[in-house]
Fold this sequence. Notes:
The protein is 34% helix and 20% strand. By secondary structure, it is an alpha/beta fold. It folds into two domains: 17-188, Vaccinia Virus protein VP39 (Rossmann fold, 3-Layer(aba) Sandwich), CATH 3.40.50; 196-252, Helicase, Ruva Protein, domain 3, CATH 1.10.8.100. A seven-stranded mixed beta sheet has the order 4-3-2-5-6-9-7, sandwiched between helices. The chain has a two-stranded antiparallel ribbon with strand order 1-8. Strand 2, helix 2 (54-61) and strand 3 form a beta-alpha-beta unit. The radius of gyration is 20 Å and the shape is elongated.
Amino acid sequence: MKYQNTKFKPGRGIPKRSLSQNFLTDPNIVRKICDAAKIVPGEKVLEIGPGKGALTHLLLERGAHLLAIEKDDALAQDLIAMNHPHLTVVPGDALEVDLPTEPYKVVANLPYHITSPILARLCHHSAHLTSALLMVQKEVADRLIAAKTNSLSLFIQFYASVTRCFIVSRNCFYPRPKVDSAIIRLDFRPTPDIDPKIFFPLMRKSFQQKRKQIATTLGKPFRDGLSALGIRPDARPEDLNLNQWVSLVKQVGNPIVEVSPHLV
C-alpha cells in the first residue's frame, strides 16, 4: 500500500485535544522521518500513537514488521481494517500496555502531554531497544541537547546518546500546534556502572533547587566529593555532565536524602 497524504476529513479521526492529537499532513516530512529511521526490511518497529497512519503506511512500505499502539479506539480500528500482514495494532495506552521483549526500534510522533512519561518508560525498557526516532516539541529537544545539563537530559543520557535530526514546522500538522517540533534519535547503550536507585534520587534532589550549589542542597560530603574530583566545590547541578555526576555519587556513596518521587 503506497503512502498517500492523510488529509483531515470530518467525522472519524477528528483530532481530540484530550489525546494531544496533531496529525502529520506533510508527506515530505513523513519520508524524512522514515529515511532517518533507516528501516531494514523485516525489522521489528514499534509506533506509538500512529493516529491516522501517515507514518504507518510508509513504515510498512519500507518493510517494517510494525506494532502500533493507539489509544483512540476508532483510529485503532481503522488501522486494524487495513489487514496488513506485517501490522499488529494494540488499542490501548502506551504507558500501560506490555512492550515487546525482543529487540525492536521505535519510530513515533509522541503525544505532547505524555512525552516525558513515555521517554521514561522507553528508557526503563532500553535493554530491549536498539534506537528510537521520536518527534517531540522543539523545546524538549532543546533541553535534551542543551550545553547546560538538566534533570531530563541527564536521565535520558544515562540510557542513550541523543541526536537532534531536524526541525518540523508547526505548519506540517492538523490541527496546527502552537509550537514547532523536532525529530530526535536515541541510541541506547549500556548504562553507567552505578545503581540508578541511588543515583537518580540524589540527582533529582539537587535539581529541585538547581540555583543552589550542590553542596548546599546535598550536604558536606558532596562538597568534599567535588573537591576530591577536582571540581569546584561551589558547582551547581547544571555544571556537571553525566560522567561527573556518576563519579560524584560513587565518590560520596549513598547518603539518605528526602526527594520528590517524580522521575524527570
